[in-house]
Fold each of these.
Amino acid sequence: MPEGTFVTPVQFGASLSRAASQELARMVTSGKLVRVRPGLYYKGVHTALGLTEPHPLDVALQIAGQGSGPAGFSAASALGLTTQVPSVIEVAVPL
């Protein structure tokens, strides 16, 4: 698994979901993964200060699913149209 990616137990197949969950929990305790929420893990980049955490916008887009994207000031910031950092992450989701 490449660094900077999200991992879920479902990616390992429905029949292996329980075993995959246990292995992912072991990887969290050993410091190889970060648990974002139940069933969602992140493999960050290892630095001298430890494992990096995901950007809040990336987490929101991962949870929102396919077809979602930044909205409002989050979109303007992501497109480089403003240097201001939004205080609230806004995500547009498909109906």
Amino acid sequence: MQAKTNDQPAVDASATGETDTIVWRGESYPVPSMRELERWVYDSVCETPEGDRVEPDHPDSWLSILGLI
């Protein structure tokens, strides 16, 4: 299933058992695991798809991109 609007990145959630990916700023990235997402919530520091460390509510954080914040 792919979903994309002007404000949201495209997410490829395949049923093949492969890792889900997301297209953000023209690049494809693997979606973080629930364990990683939970750690970022509790640590108050979150990564971006490019590996930068930002606050969880930063617009480029994984939590923001995935619509969890």
Amino acid sequence: MVKRRMIHRRIEPASQKITKPGKFVKDPVYKLIELTGTSTTSIEDAVDKAIKRAHKTIKNLCWFQVVETRGNIEKGKVHHWQVTIKVGFAVQAAA
């Protein structure tokens, strides 16, 4: 019997968010939203478009997770990609 060791890594790129120069949030709080990006080019382009659009109105974007990938077909070829992602961002600390 082969024993397998599972390694769990927790990705928290914003765990050291700066609120003021030289000050870090000790225990940051995050919020998740779900977005769907679209592209006629690629899956990556659909993800990139969703993140770029969210970045215009949401501060402290930290990570994303692909939830679903789908698309439509025309004349036997991929015509359009739709990629649903969850995007995490740090909630600002109360003043």
